[in-house]
Amino acid sequence: MRSLYAPFDEKTVRSLKLGEIVNITGAVVTGRDEVHIRALEYLDEGKEVPQCLNEAVLYHCGPIMVQDDKGTWSVVAAGPTTSARMNTLEPRFIREFKIRAIIGKGGMSKEVAEAMKEVGCVYLAATGGAAVSYAEGLSRVTGYDWLDLGMPEALWHFQTRALGPLVVAIDAEGNSLYEKVREKVAENLKKL
């Protein structure tokens, strides 16, 4: 397993190979549909967007958070969200913010893979059903934005420690494990 330290530069991202297993230590933000929609609307309206999105490692996750008596937030569970939900928003999001890595489950469209290839971004597949294990890798909350969207939809900022394991499922050349599986299935169906 390869250990990566976020934030990533483009050279590091482009060095990752399809199928490689990694973990991440460093800055990671969470964002699902509502974060994507708001950030792009703010850009269109000329409003300020949180700087943490620039060249971010973006985790498609709606974490379950708790706050103690002192106001400190911690994460209880942080499983990956199905990334295909963001397919229509993600190409522009990647291009606008130069996203370096997306963590999620289920893969993303060819259009997203093309944006990843342009910018230098990878898709890191996380295992569904491992929310508590992934929460352990999100070692510390360093901030948040847009809590008005609701806990799972807010933009959470984390310092991670060995978040993973994660599989490079779409590389920065646009190659996709999901497409390879689809091609193999289609090939096998032709033989029936």
Give a verbal description of the structure:
The protein has 192 residues and is of the alpha/beta class. The mean pLDDT is 95. It has a single domain, classed as Alpha-Beta Barrel (fumarase). Helix 4 (110-119) links the parallel strand 6 and strand 7. It is built from six helices and nine strands; from the N terminus they run βαβαβββαβαβαββα. It has a five-stranded mixed β-barrel with strand order 2-3-6-7-9. The chain has a two-stranded antiparallel ribbon with strand order 4-5.
- CATH class assignment: Alpha Beta
CATH architecture: Alpha-Beta Barrel
Strand pairing plus helix content: what structural class? alpha/beta
Backbone CA Rg: 16 Å
Task: Specify the helix fraction band.
Answer: 25-40%
Shape estimate: globular
What is the number of beta strands? 9
- What is the fourth-level CATH superfamily? Fe-S hydro-lyase, tartrate dehydratase beta-type, catalytic domain
Number of helical stretches of at least 4 residues? 6
